[in-house]
Design brief:
Layout lengths: L11 E3 H10 L7 E8 L3 E7 L17 E7 L7 E4 L6 E8 L3 E7 L2 E14 L2
Antiparallel strand pairs: 1-8, 2-3, 3-4, 4-8, 5-8, 6-7, 7-8
C-alpha cells in the first residue's frame, strides 16, 4: 500500500519509521538527483526530480519536482562516506536501512553515501 506523499511533506520522520516510509515508496528508485550537499547543521540534503519515478504508469504515480530529502545526521556522527560521480544521469538506485539508523543510498550509474541518521524530512525546494 502506497502512502499519500503529501501527508509526509514537512514532517520529521524519526529514524525508526524511515524504513517503513522508504519501503512504501520503493526507496525512491529512479528519482533524478539534481544536487547533493552536506549542511553544517549535520544534514545531508538530496534534491531530486520525479520523486515517484518508480511508479510511472501506475495509479499511484505523481510527478514531483524539486523535492528535498533532508537526512538529519546523528549529532555525534563524524564518519560518513560520500563517493559520487555527479553527472546529468545520476539517479537514486536504492536506499538501504541497517539497524534502523544507518542509511546507505546507492546511486545509478554509480556511487553511494553512508551515514547514521536520526530523522528525515521531505520538503519542496523553495
Amino acid at each position: 500500500m502506497i502512502l499519500d506523499i503529501n501527508k509526509v511533506f514537512n514532517k520529521v520522520i524519526n529514524y525508526y519509521d524511515i524504513e517503513k516510509l522508504l519501503d512504501s515508496y520503493g526507496c525512491f528508485h529512479d528519482a533524478i538527483v539534481k544536487k547533493v550537499c552536506f549542511d553544517t547543521d549535520q544534514e545531508i540534503i538530496i534534491v531530486v526530480d520525479d520523486l515517484m519515478a518508480n511508479f510511472e504508469g501506475f495509479e499511484e504515480y505523481q510527478f514531483l519536482n524539486n523535492i528535498q530529502l533532508i537526512f538529519h545526521l546523528e549529532k555525534k556522527e563524524k564518519n560518513f562516506l560520500i563517493n559520487l560521480d555527479c553527472n546529468d544521469n545520476l539517479k537514486i538506485y536504492d536506499i538501504e536501512v541497517i539497524d534502523n539508523d544507518k542509511i546507505i543510498i546507492y546511486f545509478s550509474p554509480s556511487g553511494k553515501i553512508e551515514f547514521k541518521v536520526r530523522s528525515l524530512t521531505i520538503t519542496g525546494n523553495d
